[in-house]
Write a structure and sequence with these properties.
This protein is mainly β. It has one helix at residues 7-26, and strands at 41-45, 48-53, 56-61, 66-71, 86-87, 92-96, 102-107, 112-118, 130-132, 135-139, 144-149, 155-160, 172-174, 177-181, 186-191, 197-202, 212-214, 217-221, 226-231, 237-242, 252-254, 257-261, 266-271, 277-283, 293-294, 298-302, 307-312, 324-325, 335-337, 340-344, 352-356, 362-366. The chain is built from 1 helix and 32 strands. Strands 1-2-3-4 form a 4-stranded antiparallel sheet, with no helix packed on it. It has a 4-stranded antiparallel sheet with strand order 5-6-7-8, with no helix packed on it.
Length: 369
């Protein structure tokens, strides 16, 4: 089942994304590392929305779309943020900058203070940090995973990827292990307590996103055009499937199904209990970099050309009468809260949109002043 599309439109957008990838995969920093994406990073925690975009991190009240606070209060030359903020239960806001500094901020209601900074990294922070109890796990484009004390920012341990290649995605923590994707083709398993390596597995292509978990396996997509199922225990490859395009976003798991998008514009549903057998596929007009999002019945797919679609998980049929269209470019991961998708946008005066999951209703949630 394939959605009809206009070849010329898709070709133009595909060429545009190829140019973007050319910049990402050939551009080097002063450390010789790959450069990363520069689109808004979104996090929602409780009654606050946090979005990092360029020179500013915004905290927003989702009930009225108003700004609660911003950091910094005045624009600072050379300072920019795109990594989604990580939020702790006791009000820490951890966010990395493109100027190689990780900030430990403290949310105090209508304002935020700097509690500590960590400036030992040699490159930018592209991925969000992961907070586990009193530990911050911060991946950096310099190829290191920094484990820091949440309250002080002091170093607990550091893990170095084999070839020192960039880390673009947040680590996944399952019990006492950390699972880390890298652009050096390796998926790493690391001991949470001390940073020792448990195992590593070469997947033959750069892994730009966090793996997803299904029972005792991890699902990881690559820029090599494959989706892998890997044993959580020892890193062995259980099975793999070839894909039409590179996979950028983390697969979404619902029941025994997984859903993933690729840069050829395909959204694919597979059966995890049948070694990744295809259940259905739809082809859209533009590349898909954002991770699909699932609820109990639908999967929500955001494509680079600003289109948001909902599909019935079991059949691939459209769940909405019409698609939602946002002017601008949609590359960043969205967040689902109750019956609303919050979607960051590039190239639009409105930075954050809200899309209702029942019928695809659309509104601007936040426009910076």
């Amino acid at each position: 089942m394939t959605t009809s599309h206009i070849p010329t439109r898709r070709t133009i957008r595909w060429i545009g994304l190829l140019l973007l990838l050319a910049v990402l995969l050939t551009g080097c920093s002063t450390q010789g590392m790959l450069t990363g994406s520069s689109w808004p990073g979104l996090t929602i925690d409780g009654d606050q929305v946090y979005i990092a975009n360029g020179s500013t991190i915004y905290a927003i009240d989702p009930t009225n779309g108003r700004e609660t606070w911003r950091f910094p209060t005045e624009t600072e030359r050379g300072l920019s943020f795109y990594a989604p903020p990580a939020i702790s239960e006791d009000g820490y806001v951890i966010v990395g900058s493109y100027s190689n500094v990780l900030y430990g901020l403290r949310n105090r209601g209508s304002l935020v203070d700097i509690e500590w900074t960590f400036d030992d990294a040699k490159d930018r922070y592209i991925a969000a940090a992961t907070i586990v109890d009193d530990l911050v796990l911060a991946p950096n484009a310099d190829g290191h995973l920094y484990a820091l004390d949440l309250e002080t920012g002091t170093t607990e341990w550091i893990y170095t990827a084999t070839d020192g290649n960039a880390l673009w995605s947040p680590p996944l923590v399952i019990e006492d292990r950390v699972y880390l994707s890298s652009l050096d083709h390796e998926l790493y398993c690391i001991d949470l307590s001390n940073g020792d390596e448990c195992w590593k597995q070469d997947l033959g292509g750069s892994i730009p996103s966090t793996p997803a978990q299904y029972e005792d396996m991890l699902l990881a997509g690559t820029f090599g055009g494959e989706l892998f199922a890997i044993s959580i225990e020892d890193g062995s490859i259980l099975w793999s499937i070839e894909t039409e395009g590179w996979i950028w976003g983390t697969p979404a798991v619902s029941g025994t199904y997984a859903f993933f998008g690729d840069l050829n514009g395909n959204i694919t549903a597979i059966d995890l209990d049948n070694r990744g057998a295809e259940v259905w596929r739809e082809t859209l007009n533009a590349p898909i970099t954002a991770a699909p999002i699932v609820d109990e019945t639908n999967v929500y797919v955001i494509s680079e050309d600003g289109v948001v679609n909902a599909y019935v998980q079991e059949t691939g049929e459209l769940a909405w009468a019409r698609e939602s269209v946002i002017e601008g470019s949609l590359n960043a991961d969205a967040v689902l809260v109750d019956d609303t998708l919050f979607i960051p946008a590039l190239g639009n005066d409105c930075l954050l949109f809200a899309v209702g999951t029942e019928a695809g209703s659309l509104r601007c949630e936040f426009q910076p002043e």
